[in-house]
Amino acid sequence: MDPTASQQEIEHGHSPAAIAERLKDGPTVSYLRDWVLGGIDGAVTTFAVVAGVAGAELSIGVILILGAANLIADGFSMAAGNYSGVKAEKDDYQRLREMESRHIALTPEGEREEIRQIFAAKGFEGDDLERAVEIITESHDRWISVMLEEEFGAPKVERSAIMAGAATFAAFFICGAVPLLPFLFGAGANALAAAVVMTGFVFLGIGAMKSKWSTARWWTSALETFTIGMAAAGFAYVIGALLKGWVGV
């Protein structure tokens, strides 16, 4: 970091009091990632359904029925998948905890040697290394936690599978409903154009939010998500138009 950076460029305070306040409750759990992923998928898939049906020149009723079915079925499917994935991670974390606890009970010296080698690789040596091993292994929970983090890369923060699934479904439903609104409220011949514009803004907003997890500028991330979403919708529209001519509807 540039040593001349101003205090305004630092994300949090570094006084002893500020550090203690920030660390006292441990890492916080965020479900924004689940929301962003659900929102992108909801907007892309529902907009693709709308574009495909519009390309086939089917009725507004068909657009609303298929769009609503997509919101519920695909939204639930994605939420269930995210729930199952997070739960699988938690189950695996618990399995590793039980395994390490068993290993410590059966072969404590072997597990101490693992701690010793882990911290030796970090640059500890001599009395400092032995003291680090002693401090870590004197607490059973701390010993297991260090082994999980260092040996298996297990995350320190346990996320709720239910909250992850709920955040995904909510985002999928909210963002996915946007392409249907012009058809629902009778925009008539301009409904598809309105859906394109409205969903485009959704893609831009989600992309800008997604930049929180990358080093890309917000507008770069926004344009990337916009391009992906519009490409998916354009492809669906072309397929719908081709199928209309092929099946003769």
TrEMBL record:
One of its GO terms (biological process) is intracellular manganese ion homeostasis. One of its GO terms (molecular function) is manganese ion transmembrane transporter activity. It is a multi-pass membrane protein. InterPro entries: Ccc1_fam. It is found in: Endomembrane system. Pfam families: VIT1. One of its GO terms (cellular component) is endomembrane system. It comes from the Bacteria. Keywords: Membrane, Transmembrane, Transmembrane helix. The chain crosses the membrane at residues 47-73, 161-185, 191-209, 221-243. The keyword tRNA processing does not apply. This is GMP synthase.
